[in-house]
Amino acid sequence: MTQIANFQASCIPQTIYQHIVTLAIFHDMNLAIRYAGDTLMVDQGIVHCCGPTRTTLTPENLAQVYGVDCRALSVDAGAFTAIYPVSVIANEVGSQY
User: pTM of the full predicted structure?
Assistant: First the structure.
């Protein structure tokens, strides 16, 4: 992680402890799944799904929105989940990606 990302990640637990709502935009799914309690996934300006991060950042939703086949792996004896891209899903006729 970059120095800025480290700083941002270190702020999140502090805001949770102080009961401060934090709005963050993550492009790194692994940071989002580790630090975000709830996630809003948007596909071309339309809400695709919203709710607890562990139920929204799934391989199925990532495939539908981004066209990437991913695997979710348990890390640190189940303390965290890591998302790994495996391949790009072939662009089908009429597909949005």
Answer: 0.72
